[in-house]
## 1
Amino acid sequence: MSKRYSNFDHLRAWSILAVIIIHLTAPLAKEQAPLGIVLNQLARFAVPSFLVLSGWGLDITDAFDRSDHYLDYLWTRIKKVWPDYLIWSLVYALTHFILAGHPLTIKQSLVYLINGGFSYHLYFVPLITGLYILYPALVYLTNHPGLYTAFNLIFIFQHITDDYLGYIPFDLLQDYYTYAFCFAFGIWLSHDFEAKIHYLKRGKHWAYGALFTFTLFTVFESLESQGAVSATTRPFVTFYALCLILCFMVTDLKPNRFFSYLSKYSYFIYLSHVCMVEVIEAFIKLPSGWMGTSLYLGASLLLVLIFEFALIYLVKGIKGWINNNNERKSTLS
């Protein structure tokens, strides 16, 4: 099949919308607004989805095999994600620290650059970089059914026992284990991908049923805990996210220009959207009640998207102007 899979464009687009919703609903979840809590938790399929899509995309395009060697592959990955990350790290360093009256030392700056500490959402880039480094090992793992089964069983055991039984194996590594699990699942999906889609479509009602079940569990848990779990990737959320990904695979979705656009610029939107979210949080008072919360979230999401589309248009214009100037200089010389 084509290495461009339009259903995953839909998934990527919905995932970036979910990221924005997570950050817009975070203050509401803290205030224990029921709708804010539920939407915050349901939107948390976003990061697992991005990780699955990253692993799938690397493997389906033979990114490693097309490289001359491991360092060539790694450098290609870094060149794709780090230039924009460095630019936006500088933006957030200025707005969150320097202009806010919190001076930064060189050591602090390097630490924040390595761990994504300039803003609460930038952790994803160092995280995905680490998974890029581990990619050959994870490919080996997914190519050996016995090892991959053990990897998944251990993950499920520690994921569930850590949250519900108070037993915490690998506590310092458990978050990264969750990320590696999702990334490896994407790699595994890419193997005989067309055959997997065909097989899943034969049992798509089971996928829809599982999604419905885990959605209910996720909603119930988030309300029952009054938002105490909203900032964590709980087992119900992980399994709900995986079921949602499978449902995107078994559903017949037509290409859509809006979702294709969001998918294309999802990484840029991910890095930049916090700027507008923080403006909204600073100048718009949090509402009360279901109706007020709904209007607030709808209007806020629209404002963020307008900001992003305008910013994308501006950046594209600047890049076009620079390229035209360079071409003109080359012609004259």
Note: Residues 289-332 form the longest helix (44 residues).
## 2
Amino acid sequence: MEDNKMAFGTYKEVVSARATDKQIQKVSQDGGIVTALLTYALEENIIEGAIVAGDTEDAWKPEPTIAMTPEEIIAAAGTKYTFSPNAIRLKEAVRQYGLEKIGTVATPCQVMGLRKMQSYPFATRFVADKIALLIGIFCMENFPRDSLRTFVEGKMNSSLDNVNKMDIGKGKFWITDPEKESGLALKETHGYEQAGCNICLDYVAELADVSTGSVGSPDGWSTVFTRTDSGADIFTAAVDAGILETKPMDDVKPGLGLLEKLSNGKKDKGRKEIERRVNMGLPSPF
């Protein structure tokens, strides 16, 4: 683990995994880890509800949703490559819903914010401390919804309203609509991402309880890092219960080498942009 700590942060174990539930496999992005873990935690009363990126009538504009049933969690499955400010519902989940144990899923920057809320000695700490399971997702960059529409419709010749799945892999941004699957080289999406993504140094959600993403694992599987004691306990319990199945990372392709390359690449790129901004007299959070 020490060799990879600089790239991946502190972790207890890394494996390739997927949900065993066929319904979850059908609707989820890759291995269905987020959906499977949240539903398992809810059914086992490890959490009382989950804040997830729910769907809306407006295409690919996720709405933070407080899910109280496994069905509501499953309905929110699948990655949306635009921002869902899940933390905005945290106070409501605690104060209005009365939840004492909350699960949520977050991008690396959101995970950082939630951990800062837990560390801060006033006000928000006593809301964020209700988080019992924080799952982080790998993230290189995130796009404003209007940017998604611009390059999906302007560069990929598809209507955003008709797209039923998005994915990033093999160096391309992929969309699937009822007529076709098409990919756009990731270099063609640069300049459309959120500005903050360019100074973010975290690809693998290093501060989460459990972090997961597709890179490193085969199609239909996800790479999973267990990072905290509670995250490891919940993940292990889900595996023991048959909710998840796992394979050693050494047994799968492309393996950790690609993930390490991408994670270090994001750190290097972010540090260069931070240095550039500081040299221009601009503020930087790092």
Note: The mean pLDDT is 91.
## 3
Amino acid sequence: MIKLGIYNLEQIKKNTNFKGLFGGDKKISITLYDKILDEPDADRLAERILIYFSDDRGAYKRTYSKRFEEFDSIALDCLKGAFNNNAPLVFQDVAVSDGRTALDLFEQMSVIYPDLSYIASDYSSKVYVLDKGNVSVTISTKGQVLEIIWPPFVFNAMKKDSCLYYPLNCLIQYLAQQFIVPSILKEYDEGALQSKELVLFSHQVLKCSQDDNRFILSQHDLLQSFKEPAHAIRAMNVLNPSYFSDSEFIKILNNIHASLCKGGLFITGSNQDADTTVHGGIYEKTINGFKKIKQCGDGSPIDTLLSSSNYFSAKVSL
């Protein structure tokens, strides 16, 4: 079998279900992310583009608006109970993908907290596109190849097609990565080829950040320390045991704990799709770790870690 890709705007306009000849979903190139903004169904297309796009860790950037509504309501109640609405509030929202769920929460928080700094960040908030002839290579900020367009194919370099079901795709991708991509990267490294920056926050999110200086967009790696202290930190659909090792979790939780102010809140949980239950919890910072104050669904996938002070390499002074 063979799977072709979608890599120009005309193809999107002519397609309705994006199914291939043999029933599999066609990959839509990430390079179209900023080209579909004027389309009547831009939101749906943006979601569809992100379904099969992953960052250089192999993590997908799937997202939907109104995904955490019930959980957001619980979190807001906890925030109102912990922090005076007349005081400044710094809120860190990490791993926000294209930022839609962050915007959902910001719109509610900004009414309650006029003096709000809402910092929405993602590990991979932008990528770079290299064009040479009819070939396009998308790379991460660290230079990792993420996607290759070699018409009529679109290849995800981090999540390759099954060689069992798509042997021709695998062969052609191998040839591209061995004989075409290296020369393009070499030209780019030598300064002979320019790149195009592609920001992966949604149009509504970018507009909000331009219109309201309380909504701040950033790039952040959870394995790195935060640049400024926060009253609350939220991490949704990212702190799952399948994504990080035990040693990485220790580092991440220490980073979060160290960044939170006295009595600060950590909000975390996961769900599958929009309108599904969030399994999460809201935790208060203590001198030894975190104390759970609210649970939703079955609780956070890392509740055991958060409830055990043994996972902190050192106590952080309040």
Note: Confidence is low (pLDDT under 50) at residues 313-318.
